[in-house]
Amino acid sequence: MIDVDRLRAETPGTRNVIHLNNAGSSLMPQPVIDAIHRYLDHEIGYGGYETQSVFADELDSVYGTIAELINASSTEIAISDSATRAWDMAFYSMPFDEGDRILTTTTEYVSNWAAYLHLRDTKGITVDVVPNTSTGEIDVEALELMVDADVKLITLNHIPTNSGVVNPAVEVGRVAREHGIPYLLDACQSTGQLPIDVAEIGCDMLSATSRKFLRGPRGEGFLYVRSEFLDQLDPVFVELHTAPVVLPDRFELRNDARRFETWEKNYASVLGMGVAAQYAIGIGIGAIWERIEMLAGTARQLLGEIDGVTVRDLGAVKCGIVTFEVEGRQVLEVRELLSERSINVSTSTQISAPVDMHDREIEGLVRASFHAFNTTGEIDELVGAMRVIA
Ligand SMILES: Cc1ncc(COP(=O)(O)O)c(C=O)c1O
Fold first, then answer.
1. CATH code of the domain occupying 31-282
2. For 31-35, 144-148, 248-252, 305-309, which range has the lowest pLDDT when averaged over its residues?
């Protein structure tokens, strides 16, 4: 059982707002805030490189903590400055040739989609979208039927930015493994929200962010690369930390996932991300997920009962992201009206998930996203406000 009062006492932001924008950027808990302050105070007082040395062990332990969060090993983790860069480092390091196919989902995030179009135009790869089942998640049987010798990557969005669905990552992993196809999982919205076990999922690469359901600081993310898969990638960039130049005419790639990093980092925030992962592990990701499902399920039901509000979520398994339209109201207007009542939500537009929003003919959605520190009282506030707005 989660001690909600403790979670809220440890989350200063809950005293100011009803924060239902955890899929955008969540509220940091006190231990994360303290770690960042502690690091920065030292850096201000003693210098950047010197502070890095003093905190070397703590910084190194971040890799182990993140690995524990997703059941990987610490050598399989690279720290990056966002989920997008983590994902890019994997995707752009794939040795694609003209005619190669990649299989992806309707709900792909816009930045990943842009990268597919980029390599379509520059390398001549083909991007094929796997249809959904009638309940809205990727159709694993259809995926399997689409596999042929040209498919060089299966790339899945675990939880899309805009539609409430949880895609069946484990079942997709089974298809990828059976056919020996590399599998890249975008776990940006799922990390910190629900249990992730890369061994069970069977993905070769996974990208995630710090600021969303993990509740770490902004400007951090990480990439997992399965150790046996590491050498199948050709790193798109190299530099001194990732590929030391051992002789003037020779460099050697690092033999772990950190070959996808950069030397320079915002170490205060790296530490913060590690503490956020530790905090989530301490609460128990299973318990966090259970509470998020309960809160989001309740909100979906109550919002759906309001005249003029239509909940648009997909999925047999739904997550903490609740999306809805309001008759006669623009989504930005709804966000502003809620903000005036100290309720933070965000919006998804056609830009965020272009294929899905286009296919479903949706212009925009209001997105309320729940974390374990939210309460049913806050849902009542949201629902009350929405009744007035609608
Ligand atoms: C599903 C998904 N993937 C990737 C990203 C990109 O994450 P970041 O902004 O940390 O690069 C987002 C951000 O909203 C997302 O929702």
1. 3.40.640.10
2. 248-252
Lining ligand 1 with CB less than 6 A are 82-84, 109, 111, 157, 160-161, 186, 188-189, 209, 221
CA-wise closest residue to 267 among 90, 31, 58: 58
CA distance 17 to 296: 18
- Helical residues (DSSP H) of 249-330, grouped into ranges: 267-283, 285-304
- Whether the per-residue pLDDT at 351 is higher than 90: the answer is no
DSSP 8-state symbol, 257 = G
Close Cβ partners of 212 (under 8 Å, ≥ 6 residues apart): 22, 23, 24, 25, 26, 188, 189, 191, 192, 193
> In this structure, which residue's CA is closest to atom 12 in ligand 1?
188
Give residue 23 CA to ligand 1 midpoint distance, Å.
Answer: 9
Distance 333 CA to ligand 1 centre (A): 24
Cα separation of 341 and 334, whole Å?
A: 11
For residue 9, the model assigns a pLDDT of 98
Is the pTM higher than 0.90? The answer reads yes
- Please determine, looking at this structure, whether the domain spanning 4-28+284-389 carries the CATH number 3.10.20.30: no
HSE-up of 166 (CA within 13 Å, CB side)?
Answer: 19
Quote the Cα angle for 341-344-349, to 5°. Answer: 120
pLDDT for res 350: 87
CB 172 within 8 A of CB 141: no
Q: 73, exposed or middle or buried, with CB in 10 Å at 0-12, 13-18, 19+?
A: middle
Q: Where are the domains of the chain?
A: 4-28+284-389, 31-282
Rounded Cα distance between 59 and 272, Å, is 10
Cα-only R_g, the chain:
21
State which ligand 1 atom lies nearest to the alpha carbon of 161: 16
Task: Using the mean position of ligand 1's atoms as its centre, give its distance from the Cα of residue 205 in Å.
Answer: 16
| Single-letter residue type at 277 | A
